[in-house]
User: Fold this.
Amino acid sequence: MMVGRMSDRIRLVLALVAVMVVLGTAGLTTQWRLGSEAPAPEPPAPAETAVPPAPEPPSERLQTVTLRRGDSLVLALTRAGLEPRIGHEVATALARAGVDLRRLKPGDTVEITWSGTDKPMAVSLQPSPWLGYAAVAEEDGWTVKRLETTPDVRLAMVQGRVERSLFEAVDQAGESPPLVLAVVNIFEWDFDFTADTRSGDRFRLLVEKRYAGDTFVSYGRVLAAQYASDRRTLTAIGYTPGRDRFGYYDLDGRSLKKSFLKSPLEFSRITSRFTYARPHPILGGTLPHLAVDYAAPMGTPVRAVADGVVSRAGRDGGYGNAVRIRHRSGYETLYAHLSRLGSGIHPGARVSQRQVIGYVGSTGMSTGPHLHYEVIKGGQRVNPLGEKFIPGEPIPAPERGAFDGHARELITRLEDEAPL
Assistant:
């Protein structure tokens, strides 16, 4: 009997073990022991309460305001939402920092930085690609910060061939009109781009280009230039002798800047040259024309060809409105048929080379808008296109060696990179 009861117990234990194994393989964990009661199941963990994220603070915003015709800075800022009082405070702070607000013009932009609560934090403007200002709101008022950008200066070789005009040739080379004026200003003492330009003329120059980042902004100095016309090649080498100012010199070290310009107009067309026998368009017959006539649109600025003193200005018989200027070395120049005189031009006034002394017109004995230009030397009229005027100053002898080396280097670069 005892053995039978033991066998029954063994069978019961084995059955319980089998059940435990089956439950274990089903992923259940059981910690109760044989002969003990099963523990009560643990209560489920309370669900976590979702916490909503904290709201993000309002972000700043940037507003761009474009000035309109008739706008002042204060008016533009007020239109953008600033209180007039704050606009005046900003303008006053910028003016004290050296900003010339009078130079702002329609199309210029001003940027306003607003806080998330719609309070103005900063007002910024950029008068040029290299200079900007930011008026920043602080506890004790507006503080202006100056923001400067250093130009990225790159050297570029430019060359072209004239077919109809220098303007067109420069444009076809991918450049803009300011470069045309730079070339004209370099050679204007030796070459009259009005009278002497020919189809087939060629030019090449090494010029500085100034960039703000990857954006081209403006031209810098022309370091070297050559202009070839009718078997004649003009050369200009940019150089700063000693502590003097930057200027242009030929290969012999002579300054290209002479006492007289070749022409009183930058661009025009000669309609009548210096001659002793020309059919007169008004009086008839054949008369001397001891001057050069330039056709140009009404109002074209007329420049003094050299420093001097105005000896006469105003109505002058058949010349109409005219200006006469006395120069050194016995020279005098006359500019006639002007529509009006330049500012400050009167007898006794001193004028400088390139100063505007009047504007092209058709007053006096004239058949249409043009400039009548005379050069008088020692009381006798001379041909303005053929006169050899006083040469410029040369490179000082102690610096000639340095200049020659500098010139050779630039000419070699021109010849290697842009053969004519």
Observations:
- Residues 331 and 377 are 5 Å apart (CA to CA).
